[in-house]
Design a protein that fits this description.
Layout lengths: L3 E4 L8 H15 L7 H18 L5 H16 L5 H14 L7 H9 L3 E6 L3 H10 L8 E4 H4 L6 H10 L8 E5 L2 H10 L3 E5 L12 E3 L10
Parallel strand pairs: 1-2, 1-4, 2-3, 4-5, 5-6
């Protein structure tokens, strides 16, 4: 029986891709550079690579921030200062609260039956503020972030911290809901939690993932 649900933020509750596209378009336009939709694919390819390295402990979060946009601009052949654009991008992200489809209905449904905690890789104040702007913060007992914990999902240290702070909750009676196989699902699975994968890609569900949903509305069919 699942009593508690830990929920990822970006790509699960809030639309990170929509924020990225808007930030790139506005930021490049302000620098008199034409935004093209294919630029977004380049960003995601590079950004996902950096986050995989971060999750595996190959780089630090500070290194990601220093190198991310510089690498993107180099790949796109754009002459802009990467770290300066990163500062702009982080500010835009801090102010972004674009909900994923079905997020409010899902939170309302789950909060009536389960204890809820947010579990996110990212800066603590930024993620808390985005949930507040989206009027989602009220659904959570606590927001756990890698920025506060000092460890990224899927590291066991991230989940150890969460359960140390919620000593009356058992991993086997909890679920990790998120869109990432590498951080949300692997981390939750390794810690003995049930895993609910929001799969909006063409990837097949691995055998070790407990549940797969294509939209947040489908959570009602599981718990």
């Amino acid at each position: 029986m699942i009593d508690t649900v830990f929920i990822d933020i970006d790509g699960t509750l809030l639309d990170f891709e929509a924020c990225v596209e808007e930030s790139m378009r506005v930021g490049l336009t302000e620098n008199k550079i034409e935004y093209k939709s294919e630029m977004l694919e380049t960003f995601h390819k590079i950004n996902n690579g950096f986050w995989r390295d971060l999750e595996q402990g190959k780089i630090t979060f500070e290194e990601l921030l220093e190198r991310r946009w510089a690498t993107v601009f180099e790949a796109l052949g754009i002459d802009l200062n990467g770290p300066e654009f990163e500062t702009y991008f982080r500010k835009r992200l801090h102010e972004s609260a674009i909900p994923m489809e079905g997020s409010y209905e899902t939170l309302e449904y789950l909060s009536g039956k389960h204890r809820l905690f947010a579990a996110s890789n990212g800066p603590h104040e930024q993620q808390v503020e985005r949930l507040r702007k989206a009027d989602m913060l009220r659904y959570f007992e606590e927001v756990f972030t890698s920025g506060k914990i000092g460890a990224e999902k899927p590291a066991k240290e991230f989940f150890e911290y969460c359960f140390e702070k919620t000593a009356d909750i058992k991993p086997e009676e909890s679920a990790m809901l998120g869109d990432s196989l590498t951080s949300d699902m692997k981390g939750g699975n390794a810690f003995g939690m049930k895993t609910i994968w929001l799969n909006q890609s063409e990837k097949e569900k691995p055998d070790w993932v407990d549940y797969e949903i294509k939209s947040l509305a489908e959570i009602k069919n599981i718990i």
